[in-house]
Task: inverse folding
């Protein structure tokens, strides 16, 4: 059984090592900022998101394609976080 600490480490690593640099730069900082504070339901949704392909995730985050309903709220939050983060740089 995976411990809570191991789960967060796994999810953070998967956020930073996606396969495409674009998604690394979107999900990595988001995970660093939010994973530790997520409740169980949010962690389950985020874990499901990590199973999606980057080729699908990027258009969803950019608002270029409609995401699945079960991920839509989380993707909107991630997109807003990324836009705010980029605006500061």
Result:
């Amino acid at each position: 059984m995976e411990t809570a600490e191991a789960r967060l480490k796994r999810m953070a690593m998967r956020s930073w090592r996606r396969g495409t640099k674009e998604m690394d730069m979107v999900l990595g900082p988001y995970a660093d900022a939010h994973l530790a504070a997520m409740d169980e339901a949010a962690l389950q949704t985020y874990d499901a998101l990590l199973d999606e392909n980057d080729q699908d995730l990027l258009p969803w985050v950019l608002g270029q394609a409609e995401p699945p309903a079960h991920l839509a709220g989380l993707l909107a939050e991630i997109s807003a976080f990324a836009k705010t983060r980029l605006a500061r740089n």
About this structure: DSSP finds five helices and no strands in the chain. The chain has a mean pLDDT of 95. Helices lie at 4-16, 21-34, 40-50, 54-62, 69-88. The domain at 4-88 is CATH 1.10.150.250 (DNA polymerase; domain 1).
